[in-house]
């Protein structure tokens, strides 16, 4: 094409990414794709991750300390596991510019607010966030610009969050392809316990059971995984550190949902044992309708072959 | 290209498909793709399904009775829910040609053998089978020729199954893209309880719980499903009749696996409650390795964006 996109002011001049895993690297590529920001600095605790980031051009500048990355930044995005949020917040606090915004991408919000909030200096905005997007991969090489396309990002403003600062952060997430909603921390943590945390624990458990069963070999489990188990293994391949921290920090809601899950599971097991086919049929018919809702909401594809093109089938 | 494929004899002259859902329709298109058989007749109990089949050209001839479809057939494939296998076998038995082979595609094998076996006439081969492939869709329109590509098909020969007849059936499944293995019925039912039946029941349960929770609305569950729950809903959208019959007919193995699952789940819940992060981390690290095995075995794609091309993201 001969024309160039109209010039517009970037949403943020300087953005600092603290932690350079799947979410941060995807955010970087997505911000660059849409030309949303000025410069992006990055920091990761591990030297190896920083070296990789430099090698693949992840961030305009990779810094050797979180403090250096944050200096002069208009937006600081904490992309570390939840258990590391507090120490990072403490470390960067003295270097935050007045008027800057600190956000995060953690999967639990109450715990992050409690851990990070007290360290945020006067005059700095704190707007927790959570992009509902991910894959089972992790690390600086796992990111891709399309990760957030048509996915939700939940913003969880705290008391006194500045409306203009929220609007600016919303513009960034929308710019990388997300749909944005606001929610309070407690409701967020319950909704995520249902849609993400409990399903992850269940998938981890099922994969563990399969692996543990002596009469069915590992190679059989792997060979015959396409029968349903495969989706569980994908979920159960997610980053162990991140997920350990999620469960430890969203304890009550996760345990509540798991309690309800066990109750329902026992009722279905009982129906199997007693041969109550009507109970099973009704239950399965009902759950099918929920799937239809997800397709209609555009959160998954209805393609009969799962979009499984020839190139994907190795 | 100017040349044509070398002529070769079809694997079977006439094939009858009894039941015209996802598996039968996929098998039809896959057999035609590879030019594996002569003519294919089909029968479905519902008039609507037969009308649809005629409309879309599914089968060379759609018959109005199972008996008519089977007449003169060299291979009869029973593609009905497990609970319907016995009555279908009884119905077609008088019309089976000497030397013909009867097979099936049911997800449970011991129950099918017990239900169908006694009705197979002298001189007719009975070789139960199970292609490990499927989607959450059902019905005559849901089939596609690629369904079996690089998926496993398990053959479960019964006592006195004829070696030549087994080889012929194997050639058909290989011809539609499958890898074929033989297995005995009891082991099959246990392996499938682990890789398919228990995961399906668990997914059904989790989706039911989500839908049942008053404080999280259905629309929230649907909107935020991308966070992990989505894969569960796909599994839990599978055909209710088929799955009711699977659970009722693979009771012991499924209940055994679910018992182990609950045990493990309780141990992980306890780790969450007591804050035992090491236990969680170790468990999650271990399950991640299993996923790697599946990728290496070519049973799923490792593409960082799940092969989620722009066309799939609506």
Automatic annotation (TrEMBL), chains A, B:
GO biological process, one term: tyrosine biosynthetic process
Family annotation (Gene3D superfamilies): 6-phosphogluconate dehydrogenase C-terminal like domain, NAD(P)-binding Rossmann-like Domain
Entry keyword set: Amino-acid biosynthesis, Aromatic amino acid biosynthesis, Membrane, NAD, Oxidoreductase, Transmembrane, Transmembrane helix, Tyrosine biosynthesis
Matches recorded under PROSITE patterns: PDH_ADH (PS51176)
Enzyme class: oxidoreductase
Prephenate/arogenate dehydrogenase domain ranges (all copies): 13-302
Matching InterPro entries: 6-PGluconate_DH-like_C_sf, NAD(P)-bd_dom_sf, PDH_C, PDH_N, Preph/Arog_dehydrog, Prephen_DH
The protein's name in its UniProt record: prephenate dehydrogenase
Protein's UniProt keywords contain Zinc: no
E.C. number: 1.3.1.12
Catalyzed chemical reaction(s): prephenate + NAD(+) = 3-(4-hydroxyphenyl)pyruvate + CO2 + NADH
Family: Belongs to the prephenate/arogenate dehydrogenase family.
Transmembrane segments: 12-31
Alphabetical list of NCBIfam families matching this protein: PRK07502.1
Pathway recorded for this protein: Amino-acid biosynthesis; L-tyrosine biosynthesis; (4-hydroxyphenyl)pyruvate from prephenate (NAD(+) route): step 1/1
GO MF annotation terms: NAD+ binding; prephenate dehydrogenase (NAD+) activity; prephenate dehydrogenase (NADP+) activity
